[in-house]
Predict the structure.
Amino acid sequence: MKLPSEINSINDALKIGASFSHGWFRGHDQAYNNLNPKVFRNDYPPHYEFYFIQKFKIHAPIIAGSVPDSRDFLSWLVLAQHFGLPTRLLDWTESILIALWFSVNSIPTPTSTMKVPERSKKNTARKEKDCAELWAMDPASLNKHHKNEYLHDDIALSENLLVQYLAEQPMVREESMYQEKVKNDWKESYGQDFEFPKYPIAFMPQKTFQRQASQLSVFTIHPKPDGNSIEHILHNRTDLSRFTIPEKSKEKLRKDLSDLGITKRMLFYDLESISYDIIKEVPR
């Protein structure tokens, strides 16, 4: 099946979804043309990753009430990511229609005014200026790039040792000392050298709060960038494809998605989202 390069209709999206039958999908309301996690984009110095998560762990308990254990580093990253904090995670969804909703709707965050990175502008045609984009990926193909016996499944789970290592990395201030400790502990426990992950890993999180379930959330977790972003690793179009959504098609797609029940209320399930959808229902 020949896939469209643009998504102008729900039918276009369904063709793509059928082609990536076990795929993961991600939508951007701008044409960034890259898959770098927010904390690794040019907006933030490297040491901000540690600062962001530590501040979030200090303030979240009084607001959220129930939060992960202090040593459950991955759950803290997932929680922070879902509420807009820049982390080394990328959100994906198992539903192309949910990804499409995020492509054609802007969700305000403190970083939503971020410009398209200069390196992306050079590779983005002028016609994409007002486009959104949607990515489709085969997560198993990504994980096959890890030649490590501790990543032998197509999709990693939260308990995977490499995932746990990447989740703990931003929690420590002295990274070199931490890496030395990991190597020594690993050698003592398993009798072999620890192979530090070089590439992003696709993993299935535990569904611990409503938003994860509503959005069919899955994630990639990323090591620090070193020419190892997903679009630099997966070159086959059956493993990773990018599609643009022209500005002229967004309004019709928003309406069609709403008619199919893909709404902000369904995805976020909070009072603000209910109010948003009610206002949208009023004819103007």
Observations:
- The chain is about 40% helix and 10% strand.
- The radius of gyration is 19 Å.
- The first strand starts at residue 24 and ends at 28.
- The chain has one domain: 31-248.
